[in-house]
Amino acid sequence: MSGCKIVDGSGTMLVTSVGMNTEWGLLMSSISEDTGEETPLQVRLNGVATLIGMVGLSVAVSVLVVLLVRYFTGHTKNSVGNPQFIAGKTKAGDAIDAAIKIATIAVTIVVVAVPEGLPLAVTLTLAYSMRKMMADKALVCNVGDFPSLCLWETLLTDAEAHTHACCAIGSILFITEVVLQVRRLSACETMGSATTICSDKTGTLTLNQMTVVEAYVGEKQIYSPDKSELSPKLSALLIEGIAQNTIGSVYMSEGGGDVEVSGSPTEKAILFWGVRLGMNFEAVRSDSSVIHVFPFNSEKKRGGVALQLPDRQVHIHWKGAAEIVLASCTRYIDATDQVVMMDEDKMIFFQNAIENMATRSLRCVAIAYRSYELEEVPSDEEQLAQWALPENDLVLLAIVGIKDPCRPGVKDAVRLCQNAGVKVRMVTGDNIQTAKAIALESGILGSDADATEPNLIEGKTFRDLSDTEKEETAERISVMGRSSPSDKLLLVQALRRKGHVVAVTGDGTNDAPALHEADIGLAMGIAGTEVAKESSDIIILDDNFASVVKVVRWGRSVYANIQKFIQFQLTVNVAALIINVVAAVSSGDVPLNAVQLLWVNLIMDTLGALALATEPPTDHLMQRPPVGRRESLITNIMWRNLLIQALYQVTILLVLHFGGRSLLNLKGDTTEHANKVKNTLIFNSFVLCQVFNEFNARKPDEFNVFEGITKNYLFIGIVGLTVVLQVRFVWYFYFLVMLYYLAWTKYLLLLFR
């Protein structure tokens, strides 16, 4: 595969195709197509946007019609109580000016109703969370893969959303010591909604540090390799198979220093074991020549090699999953160095040995061989390339048990996920008993009583089910053993059809379809291939499952912070909308003019979003179930808080609007001056209501909204800055004029764009 690296050996390469014509290119073209599928959060935001847009537009049109009818029918009075429009007497210019003023009121209502600050709030929340995660050495954003964050195309163009996003994260790109690399920023919030995680075993739940701790060689069970315990013939064949049937290599320095072994963790464990048996790697490999190789195949779970010896004998060596290779064996070598037929009792003995090792979480690998006639080997190169190595009538040489211990802390991480309502499923190519043992050790299975079908299932069994049966069975699966990459893909598809938000970990090239199919693909940074990484959304640089839990925690924090801002933003919009609509219909004027509302949108939206985006994740987030794909963005608790707070604000503002002159003792002042003072008080009260409402939005579902506030210095600073700017806005007229031009320039540019 293109992108792989040759680490050992030599050969001649013929380039037959490049670019998109290669296997790698074809694979990437099939998995890189943008399906246009939205994340769960985007779906919910679009629903909220559509609803608010329709309500705001409907109210604005209604107010426009009412005010125009009031004006042209003479029901709108001036300051002395006379009608502003009298047919045949009012000048056309005055009528046009009045109509423009009425249209401005309607536009103001639209500006109030539509929370155009929400896309910016989402971007700020995501970007700030990325920054905090990087400070925690958790996440880094890849700008090259930054998505379009304009969630509402009717409100902001993609260009503006990108500008906001790049400005927000421009200072956080040069962090190197990280645990994760985020290739798609929206994957973080999607991870917060994950309902299930399909995880690999090797290297993710375990350390991927393998050692042979037990073996059955011939009939003998051995724990520490000792060449003197083995017969000469068995020892020679076993060392030949280990040295030749491998993709690894062994380097021994001339000074007799430490042995250096390269290859996959499983290969390295077996090669180390061979060295301890007395294997001279280079000498054994030079004693015979390789005729044909059958590389290890994830479907067949084994790999083989055909060798020609100096005496023209041909040996075919196989190595792979113990129970699969054992099923092809008909003979074994006994203690007297004789090849003996394998009867039923011996077959049961070896099967029990495999099961016994697997129940102790050992990975079982069998090594076998058979002799072959040189005359039967194809002599033509084309035929030899298509030759299928004989895999029957094998002679069993050894069954080795390889220990790969669980990662420290993985049990706690799994328990955190389970408490958070996220089901962890292990999908592994290992023996079902090995998978069961690791699942029990890591806490994925609670007890032996849980280790029954369909909780514990083999990939082949799941593969043979109908689509309906797959969907029903998939929800109950905790462990899938002896699975292939295609089985993982089938499981992901079945879970997604049942409405789950699925996260998948993978490291191999064949995992690419499953990583791409999942809502969140998590590739391994150490063991992962380039194809797997290209197909993923997040790269786990330390291959540790605990890092996956960290993404879930931060993803939920992102989602919760966005919900906090939505509650805060909609309270502002509902209160301002109601006060302006009631005032416009009753008196023909609005207490909150366009400039004041633009000030609220420009300052409260931006600073409010940043204040609420800075709330760090808490343990409370991991004690509640995940947000399902079809659940509403605005919860019942949010509606309760929003409506109560909006009712409180509307009551206060309407009392000030209709009774402000008497409350402030302004009856002796001119109508124009009294209205200015009254409207200034309404505006100031409205802004201060939002300042205190930010505290309410911090903890939508908790009683104590001040908990932990002293630790969030940025929140306190932003609230203080908002109050200072508001004082400056009210006291200094020139600041108002400057803001007027800045605000309208921004919205005119947005309109023309």
From TrEMBL:
In its keyword annotation, does this UniProt entry include Chaperone? no
Q: GO molecular function: any one? A: P-type calcium transporter activity
EC number(s) recorded for this UniProt protein: 7.2.2.10
Q: What is the enzyme's main class?
A: translocase
Task: Indicate the segments forming the Cation-transporting P-type ATPase C-terminal domain, all copies.
Answer: 590-750
Record's bilayer topology term? Multi-pass membrane protein
> Which is one Pfam family of this protein?
Cation_ATPase
Superkingdom classification of source? Eukaryota
Q: State the UniProt keywords alphabetically.
A: ATP-binding, Calcium, Calcium transport, Calmodulin-binding, Ion transport, Magnesium, Membrane, Metal-binding, Nucleotide-binding, Translocase, Transmembrane, Transmembrane helix, Transport
Q: Catalysed reaction per UniProt?
A: Ca(2+)(in) + ATP + H2O = Ca(2+)(out) + ADP + phosphate + H(+)
Q: Name one GO cellular component term.
A: plasma membrane
Q: Which residues cross the membrane?
A: 48-72, 102-128, 637-658, 713-743
Q: What does this protein do?
A: Catalyzes the hydrolysis of ATP coupled with the transport of calcium.
According to UniProt, the name of this protein is Calcium-transporting ATPase
* Species per Swiss-Prot/TrEMBL record: Carya illinoinensis (Pecan)
